[in-house]
Amino acid sequence: DQHGQAAVPPDQHGPAAVPPDQHGPAPVPIEGIDDRSGDLIKQEQTESKEEKFDNKAYKLPQAIYALQPPDAPGENGQGVSTNYTALSMEEQHKYDRMMKQNAFNEYNSLKISVRRRLPDGANPSCPRAFREDLQATSVIICFHNEAWTVLLRTVHSVLDRSPSHLVKEIILVDDFSDLDYLKEPLEYYMSKLEKIKIIRTPKREGLIRARLLGVDHAQGPVLVFLDSHVECFPNWLEPLLTRVKEDRRRIVAPIISMINSHNFQVGRGSASVIGIFTIADLGFKWGSLPDRIKKLRKSDADPYRTPTIAGGLFAVEKDYFIEMGKYDEGMEIWGSENVEISLRIWMCGGSLEIHPCSIVGHIFRSKSPYNWVRPVHLILRKNTVRLAEVWLDDYKKYYYERIGYQLGDFGNVTERKELRKSLQCQSFQWYIDNVYPEIEIPPKSLFTGEIRQPGRKRCLDAMNIHANGNLVSMAVCHGQLGNQLWQFTENKRIRTPIGCLSYSERKSHVIFSNCNDRGSASLTWSMEKDGHVVHIETKKCLDRNMDSTLNIANCSTIPSQIWEFKSINPS
Ligand code: UD2
Ligand code: MN
């Protein structure tokens, strides 16, 4: 799952699952909400602005942001549901369109008050009273085409569940959305609330530069970044600010609990995960809390250090954020900025922690719905290469091997390298030794390149199906690497970034298997000088079938068993 979404944290302890769709509670109509996020506008307007927005077309605003009774749908973080088959055709279309547009079920979100309450989800040892001298924050929320109710719920959850004196302002940064309701209607709605500023990027910037535009406008001494589809629990803010107040060189993240993307049920999150990343793809992951960190905690209320943060939700002192070089503005749209800021803060004298007493729900979704402007893989690669170039030292080679040293155009990183120098940062080796000793260093690559058959101009090709169980086959060599890029590793695997070659007796074919099947002997091969590729367990040789799939057979000198290993030159 590397295409633009935060992995769902493992080990979520949410409330019990809601009943299946058919048995869901009947929706309590909340006046106006349907129209607002669904089929807005399209009405000739001649009235004044106030009249225009208070009329039927926008149904603004009191009824909508009135608090609902405790048994209203979705209250207290409950899920809601829809009986799809009982909907009219028109409603079904709306439901489908909303699902597609957001990759979460906006239709269900419409049934829930934008001011629903959440329970106090923190563990009993967490404090409920806080020091008096905490600093006020500028909350920065950037968004691109966010769903109306979901964005409003994010904003209300901050206003309703933060002490007012600690919220200087909420800065909404619209990253060039093209939905009508995010223009005038949003401005009108927000003008009825206090402290909301809306700023808009002049072109699509991506979340990294959009956040930085927000920072330029921020007036509070502390910044809190949030995604545009979150809900803050009671007391979420004070623990974060307490830790920042105690030491300004800390970045503090809440527990991120899961808001179910279908029924909007809010989980409580888990205080036993840390942020990590893998060296082979430099992607953020969730990991389990290591004993060395557990041992340092005296109480469940103690914050704990984390090698990386997920990236969306955290508090940081504004001047410190700026001194430390903000973000890498050369990164686009989405991705890698979280690992970049994590390495930078640790390596340059600060620390990152997760506070178990601060909980914020976030809608995790399985794909990213928005337009990426350019092909996703090029953007992700560009951001990741920028991260590797500046912070990974020699360890960048693991990632580079995986992408066949095809770094692409990653722009200029001179300034970021100079930043690293001027902040006198530690090495990546220091980070491993001191912050993330559990990191897994992948086996060295002994060969990286194409595996082809001489004379036939055909190459082993992963065909985008390198997932577990698929048959491996061959295709015309295209010289572009990509799906024809293979590694032969120290631990005798022949692999793509995703899967490893293995032999399946049941399918009597060579297939892709999960590379982490440690004990599995059928994953190991040797590449011989005479052109044979030997399957070690059976001592048989890799053999091309007539239909371009692969098999193993008793070794001989027939051409279908002779391979050429065309290594690529790292530039
Ligand atoms: C996670 C982070 C996210 C960010 C990302 C890596 C959490 C919960 N989320 O992915 O904040 O660090 O990893 O980059 O830790 N957006 C824009 N312009 C764009 C694209 C996105 O403004 O071009 C907004 C988007 O509306 C959302 C935020 O940026 O509010 C994060 O995007 P996402 O929700 O798609 O990222 P997510 O949660 O999968
Ligand atoms: Mn998000």
Rounded Rg: 26 Å
| Second CATH tier, the architecture of the domain at 125-363 | Alpha-Beta Complex
CATH fold-level assignment of the domain at 125-363: Spore Coat Polysaccharide Biosynthesis Protein SpsA, Chain A
Portion of residues in beta strands equals 15-25%
Beta strand count: 23
Q: Which term fits the overall shape? A: globular
Distance between the termini: 29 Å
Helical residues, percent:
10-25%
Bound molecules: uridine-diphosphate-N-acetylgalactosamine, manganese (II) ion
> Considering the protein shown, what is the CATH homologous superfamily of the domain at 125-363?
Spore Coat Polysaccharide Biosynthesis Protein SpsA, Chain A
Poorly predicted tracts of residues:
10-47, 54-63
Instruction: Report the sheet with the most strands, covering strand number, pairing sense and barrel closure.
Output: 6 strands, antiparallel
Count of DSSP-assigned helices: 16
Q: What top-tier CATH class of the domain at 125-363 fits best?
A: Alpha Beta
Mean of residue pLDDT values = 88
Secondary-structure content class? alpha+beta
